[in-house]
Amino acid sequence: MSEHTHSGEKHISSYTSYFIVWIVLMILTAITVYVSYLDFGQLNIVIAMIVASIKAGAVALFFMHLKFEDSITWLFALFPLGLLFLLIGMTILDTFTRIFL
Amino acid sequence: MEQANMEHAEDHGLHMTPEQEYSSSKLGMWLFLGTEIMLFGGLFAAYAIFRAKYPEMFAESHEELNREMGAINTCILIFSSLTMAIAVTAIQRGKQMMAGLLIVVTILCGLGFGVVKYFEYGAKFAHHIYPDTNIFFSLYYLMTGLHMLHVFIGLGILAVIAVLTFKGKFNENYSTPVELGGLYWHLVDLIWIYLFPLLYLIH
């Protein structure tokens, strides 16, 4: 926060922090590819999605500055995720419970 | 207190401080990104259903995809996100030339992504694999195609921003369009982060 801008409180991320995030993303990508060659059965997709979500989280928090945004931006960012879980969750629930009818 | 502030704002009609303009622009962009997530969300829901119904078909069909090319494109997109993020910091520090050049690098990465995808689609067509081959390839073409469209739109936005940056329109006091363009570009990267393992790396 040593940089001072016109708006005063605006956070500027350092180049170094971006390089660190990038290296983490590359390592996680390598892990995703490596794990896909191993056989964990049903766990493969779970691991792949967890790693992808960590990557997506890193992109959103640092590259997209979400970590430094106010609570209303967080609400705008998280609300669609809630809707997304509803959309996918309810569709799955609907499709795979029809056999019980 | 808040009531009084709101009335005060209404009295002044359209007048806004640069800070208000900046934060409301950014909020609007996040709202738009939310709708983008929902747009892809429907396709992800379809993917989940059909993969659960036809796991063998998905596992077999995905063998046709070139995971090396998918991995290369993942690296290209992540690198382009890095250059874009650094470009935002550069312009926020007033370094116009550096920011402009970094946006150009980002654009070149996006074009590289398109070239790899062009060869991938070409190889699929050569093997007579089309969107109507089966439900996996329907989803493959639809999801990667919609993503590709977003890459092209992003490239158009970044091209305009690059030109304006070189013209000196942005500086340490005003860099909102660069930041918003960056947000859009990162979303394109974010969606690909999920598409890559779901389409190329099925076990």
Overall description:
The complex is a heterodimer of chains A (101) and B (203). Chain A is mainly alpha-helical. Chain A folds into 2 domains: 1-68; 70-101. Chain A contains 3 helices and no strands. In chain A, helix 1 (15-36) packs antiparallel against helix 2. Chain A is flat. Mean pLDDT of chain A is 90; it is low at 1-7. The termini of chain B are far apart. The mean pLDDT of chain B is 93. Chains A and B meet through helix 1, helix 2 and helix 3 of A and helix 2, helix 4 and helix 7 of B.
Per the CATH scheme, the topology name of chain B is Four Helix Bundle (Hemerythrin (Met), subunit A)
Mind telling me the CATH superfamily name of chain B? Cytochrome c oxidase, subunit III, four-helix bundle
Given helix and strand content, the structural type of chain A is: mainly alpha
What oligomeric state do the depicted chains represent?
Answer: heterodimer
Strand content of chain A: under 5%
Strand content of chain B: under 5%
Total strands of chain A: the figure is 0
Q: Output the structural class of chain B.
A: mainly alpha
User: Can you tell me the number of structural domains of chain A?
Assistant: 2
Report the major sheet of chain B.
none
Helical proportion of chain B, percent range: over 70%
Fraction of residues in helix of chain A:
55-70%
Shape of chain A: flat
Give a short account of the largest sheet of chain A.
none
- The Rg value of chain A, from CA coordinates, equals 19 Å
- Largest protein interface? A-B, 52 and 53 residues
